[in-house]
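Recap slide: Diacylglycerol O-acyltransferase, sequence and predicted structure.
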Amino acid sequence: MKQLSGMDATFLYLETPTTFGHVTGLMIFERPSEEFDPYAAVHAKYASLIGELEPLRRRLVEVPLGLDHPYWVDDPNFDLDFHIREIHLARPGMVDQLADQVSRIVGRPMDRSRPLWEVYVIDGLDDGNWAMLTKYHHATIDGAAGQLMLNILTDTEPDAAPPGPSPAWEAEPLPSDIDLLRKAVMNLAGHPVKALRFQTRLVGQLADAAGIDSIGSAASKAGSAIKAIARLGREDGPKIPLPTSAAPPTPWNKPITGHRRFAMRTASLENVKQLKTATGGTVNDIVMAICAGGLRSYLQAHDALPDGPLRAMVPVSIRTGDEEDPWTNRVSAIFPELPTDCADPLERVARCREAMLDAKRLLDLVPASQLGDMAQVSAPVLSTSAMRLASRFGLAHRIAATPFNLVISNVPGPRKPLYFAGAQLVHQFPVSIVTEGQGLNITVVSYLDRLDFGFIVDRELVPDVWDLADMHIDEIGRLMEASGAEWVQEPQPAAPRRGPVRVVQPGDAY
């Protein structure tokens, strides 16, 4: 039995009926032969790893009354067939049909009485390829640990040996409520009183805000609670690099539903590197500039472009290499501005570069060992109550100090081909998280010579997510033209899409 760290547990406390804490990855593979059975290959591979990979077999045990962080325990009722599932797309099996399946799967919460992962084998793609959708709760692994999991699941050669039997493992009995409460009391005795007082004040303010008549006053009072978090770093605690001013409103900074839409596009990494050389930035700067330009185009198309820049939250790994548990979350964030208010593509690149440098300087003020302190001392019952109050009463999008508009993440991936049971990995599309008041997330993963973009949105707030995705790819062309950079690879055209299904009316010709 092992207790979750405060940072890991935070991803459980963030969950509400509309906000889910799982992260998902969509991998598309070639089919090595006509007789290849993707489901059988995936099932055999995971079966061989259950004894080796602890995150695959451990389930949550929550402390009564939410007095302490939950524990991981090996599941005594582990059932591999529950976790590995098979889907076959209806004909013709186009990319938007695949994305629709991803959207539905991502929009379902995970069963906390089971190990927090699911794998979907998706067949029937129109080009003969097949897909594997992995769904892990963020409490289990972060982005860096996800890449580690990918490395374990895949091979670097197509003719690697087939998986062998799993190492033996033995499930432990589930702890009793009395044992969990006893541990919680001992842990609470060592918690800083200041942290508990702070959280009590935060929940009290949210509760008061929910119960008063004036919506404006409610937003103001909830905003004061959030601002208290940012002020904490300027008093006698560690300097937490949170923004203290509001981000401008956008169409997706509103209460979210539990429904999602997903879209994906691929760009040439080599072309982005040409842009990096031509503009003097980094690959990450160029990715941020692509997002700034794509979002600007989308907001202009909807007559919703704010006068000032947007602000992004960019996750940053704070792994030192000395972690005892490679599967625990080690992540912080920076909050750079996105120059969506700037019409010049090259100026957007320059401003992105400066914004990223400024944000990283703030992050450097905080030792990595201190960044998880606030999460570690959080009382679960208070953290969870705060999130549910904010969600229930729609406070998130009304808070005066909503600190950022969306999450943008750029995850470096492998530069060599990977194989799964002899099937070569073609694409690795990330599918991340949207949260209350933040109905858009853009995540990018590099693989070989390409960048795979994943756009996950609230279904109601961004109904035209494919248009948004296409606008990001169009922005690369604008940057290439403005910078004079040379095209190393031709732009990859969008895959054919089925589009909306036409409903046949009486009297229509077939």
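The first helix runs from residue 6 to 13.
The first strand starts at residue 2 and ends at 3.
(End of recap.)
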